[in-house]
TrEMBL record:
Cofactor(s) recorded in Swiss-Prot or TrEMBL: FAD
Acyl-CoA oxidase/dehydrogenase middle domain segment(s): 125-221
Organism of origin: Nonomuraea cavernae
Stated family: Belongs to the acyl-CoA dehydrogenase family.
Domain Acyl-CoA dehydrogenase/oxidase C-terminal: 239-382
Any single Pfam family the record assigns to this protein: Acyl-CoA_dh_1
Keywords of the record: FAD, Flavoprotein, Oxidoreductase
Protein name: Acyl-CoA dehydrogenase
GO MF annotation list: acyl-CoA dehydrogenase activity; flavin adenine dinucleotide binding
């Protein structure tokens, strides 16, 4: 019988999924997940449990204190977390990116933080977006200068996940002028401690991904030791660029998790809810909507799996990971919409997880990179002129 579970997985991968399911079942049962979402809280007990089980360290080099694992393992974990609380999966992706960036020969003493980040003892945030730049990231305004033995950072970051919990934020800033008109040159990534006078963190409240801990960070001559530079000065975009494919398939895994959970709930509602003396799932119009959703989910999963295989094989994966991100996000937006229609009033009830999936699926359309930018990349890959 058709179901929403992944197909043809190794027993090890299935065990990994089961581990996440049982950990979250204990530390973040469904009613607690909805409460955490409503309160916009951080699911700290679940985070600690993920750290203790070594799951926050996935993607980090084992010799440096990470847990190793494959890209496919991390995608499976993010999918399982997203089924329960999509906002927590957003934070998980941030942590996974830190693992990869610190382990990938970043060549800075901050790489020594990996064990603490992997255990959950140290929480970090990634400050790229700003009030005036998101998609056009290279136009950022935050800057840093050297003053004796430290960096002095000035600027503002917006929509930064987990910043209210984090000890440190990896802040993308301009340290040097753009070389030969290339805006990607001269940008650096500096680990800025958040508990200091020059930093103010303000929580922002959103209609979706409410428990991801989204914040605004004001950097008013914030300081950081010179050693807190990650990788080479002025070359942040090459460090970030190396992890782009993985970030996109992790985002795709997050979409799969939301889509799968929403479709499971949708189908059970079709079986349970009655109208005109029969389950509403007996009406052809409603069956067709669910059929479109299982086809969407299955097609997305196949593309995500193909992108993961391509990355794991070390092939150039820019287009595959971009397509996986795009297709999974758009499919999930359709899946949650169909789920909401089928559940009608009960889908909007606070007690129903469908309203959470519906709101959270919006983020997937524009973050970590907007689907429109993905379309631009794919257009260029087909030999069409750059449109921006
Ligand atoms: C819950 C949440 C968590 C987040 N976490 C983080 C985080 O931890 N760290 C961080 O740095 N950021 C984070 N972000 C920010 C996120 O990465 C940005 O929202 C995203 O990059 C899009 O930027 P924007 O919202 O400024 O949209 P804009 O860049 O203003 O885009 C607006 C619209 O214009 C379109 N557009 C722009 N340029 C083009 C173009 N050339 N061609 C076609 N269309 C275009 C976009 O697709 C979009 O539809 C988070 C956001 C949210 C909501």
């Amino acid at each position: 019988m058709l179901n929403t579970r992944p197909f043809q997985e190794s027993p090890e991968r299935a065990d990994l999924r089961e581990l996440v399911e049982s950990l979250l079942g204990r530390h973040l049962p469904a009613d607690r997940a909805l409460a955490v979402d409503r309160e916009g809280a951080f699911a700290s007990a679940a985070w600690a449990a993920l750290g203790e089980a070594g799951l926050l360290g996935l993607g980090g080099d084992e010799t440096s204190g990470g847990s190793g694992g494959t890209v496919g393992d991390a995608v499976a974990v993010v999918e399982e977390i997203a089924r329960v609380l999509p906002s927590l999966a957003v934070d998980y992706v941030v942590c996974g990116m830190a693992m990869r960036m610190l382990g990938d020969g970043a060549g800075s003493p901050v790489a020594g933080w990996m064990p603490e980040i992997a255990s959950g003892a140290k929480v970090c945030a990634f400050g790229l977006s700003e009030p005036d730049v998101g998609t056009d990231l290279l136009g950022l305004r935050t800057s840093a200068r050297v003053d004796g033995d430290r960096w002095v950072v000035k600027g503002q970051k917006l929509w930064i996940s987990l910043a209210h919990e984090a000890e440190v934020a990896f802040v993308l800033c301009r340290t040097d002028p753009a070389e030969e008109g290339r805006r990607s040159r001269g940008l650096s990534l500096i680990a800025v401690p958040l508990d200091q006078e020059g930093v103010t963190v303000r929580r922002v409240h959103l209609a979706g991904m409410r428990a991801a801990g989204t914040c605004e960070i004001f950097l008013d001559d914030a300081v950081a030791p010179l050693d807190n530079l990650v990788g080479a000065r002025g070359r942040a975009m090459s460090i970030l660029g190396k992890t782009l494919d993985v970030e996109r398939v992790l985002a795709a895994g997050l979409s799969l998790g939301i889509g799968r959970a929403a479709l499971d709930l949708h189908v059970s509602h079709l079986k349970e809810r009655e109208a005109f003396g029969r389950p509403i799932g007996a009406f052809q119009a409603l069956q067709h909507a669910a059929a479109d959703s299982i086809a969407d989910l299955t097609a997305s999963r196949a593309l995500v799996d193909a992108a993961v295989r391509s990355i794991e094989a070390g092939e150039p994966s820019l287009e595959m990971s971009a397509m996986a991100k795009l297709v999974a996000a758009e499919s999930t937006a359709r899946i949650v919409d169909r789920g909401m229609r089928a559940m009608a009033a009960s889908g909007l009830a606070e007690e129903s997880a469908m309203q959470m999936y519906f709101r959270d699926a919006r983020l997937q359309l524009f973050s970590p990179v907007s689907n429109d930018m993905i379309r631009n990349i794919l257009g260029e890959s087909m030999g069409l002129p750059r449109s921006y």
